[in-house]
Amino acid sequence: MKKTIFILGIVSVNIMLFGALLKVLHLKGAAILLMISILLFCFVFLPLALISSYKSQNEKIYKWLYIVTFIVFSFDITGALFKILHWPGAWVFLAIGVPLPFVLFLPVYLYQTHKNKDKSVLNSLGIMFGLTFLAIFSTLLALNVSATVIDSFVVNSVNNENSAKVYQEISKKYTDNDIVKQKADELCAFIDELKKEVLISTDNILSTNYNPLNTVNRGGTDITIFSTKKEGEQSKIDILKRMISQYAEVISKSEKAKLELKQLSNTLFDVSNKEIPNNKEEISKWENREFPSVNLVIVLDVLSKVQSNVRFVEVEYLSSL
């Protein structure tokens, strides 16, 4: 029996490590391997190992400690699995599972072992460090964005980049040096500069022709490069919002623009802060709505989407003249 348990433990841990490696490298099969290994570890190896350990004792003590150990480990690791695979209810697992080692396991452990003189202070400290590692590991693993989600944003970014280029080429056919065309060029040029800053900040090699598929580092990037500002200066995100607002205002005030285009422009380029429904005291800022994550590809996708919308409205406006 013990031999089988050891084999199950080694197999499940190795599959889990291999799945984590595939996950880090964004290779296919990572989700399947992680799911198999975590389910095998939590619901096969862990209960068998705890039962075997309990039965091997001369005195059957610490029963509740074994039960709590199974609950805490299985809850935390399963919660991380739910988050990685984007299954419903992941937030419940995380909200309960992360503090669970400290509010459930630790009190039970200290209560049941405080009278045992064989349990030293160093042993208790080891347990605490182990619990801390488990909580941190669960949190970091749960926050990891799956390759499927990242790739979907990359595809969207590529499509937006291609659309913006197509619309820009169409706009070049119009010789009319209209204010809308000038504002569109200025706004898109500013966004290109923002993209360069983002790519440089994440150590990506910047080529002449930017392509989202060529981004080497798809991890998180610090979006504070937008909000950071020197004394007396506007932040990059404030400048971006101001330029978007000015572009929409030019469209809405133009006598040449059709009513439908003005309404579309007001919808696409609404950078105003809004009250959160059911909570009038809370305000939702435009930058928080548009940039829900600081992940590199998500930031680039949002910037590319703005460019695509700007060029689309520009072409629709010029074609109606």
Layout of secondary structure:
Blueprint: H1 2-24, H2 30-55, H3 63-84, H4 90-97, H5 100-113, H6 121-143, H7 147-171, H8 179-201, H9 224-227, H10 236-253, H11 259-268, E1 274-276, E2 279-284, H12 286-290, H13 296-319
Antiparallel strand pairs: 1-2
Helix pairs in contact: 1-2, 2-3, 3-4, 3-5, 3-6, 5-6, 7-13, 8-10, 8-13, 10-11, 11-13
Global structural class: mainly alpha
What pattern of helices and strands is seen along the backbone?
HHHHHHHHHHHEEHH
Strand residue content: under 5%
Overall geometry: elongated
Strand order of the largest sheet: 1-2
Q: Can you walk me through this structure?
A:
The protein is an all-alpha fold and 321 residues long. The protein has two domains: 2-143, no CATH class; 147-319, no CATH class. It contains 13 helices and two strands, in the order H-H-H-H-H-H-H-H-H-H-H-E-E-H-H. The protein has helices spanning 2-24, 30-55, 63-84, 90-97, 100-113, 121-143, 147-171, 179-201, 224-227, 236-253, 259-268, 286-290, 296-319, and strands spanning 274-276, 279-284. Strands 1-2 form a two-stranded antiparallel ribbon. A hairpin with a 2-residue loop joins strand 1 and strand 2. Helix 1 runs antiparallel to helix 2, helix 2 packs antiparallel against helix 3 and helix 11 (259-268) packs antiparallel against helix 13. The longest helix has 26 residues, at 30-55. It is elongated and about 90 Å long.
The gist of it:
The protein is mainly α and 321 residues long. It has 13 helices and two strands; from the N terminus they run H-H-H-H-H-H-H-H-H-H-H-E-E-H-H. It has two domains: 2-143, no CATH class; 147-319, no CATH class.
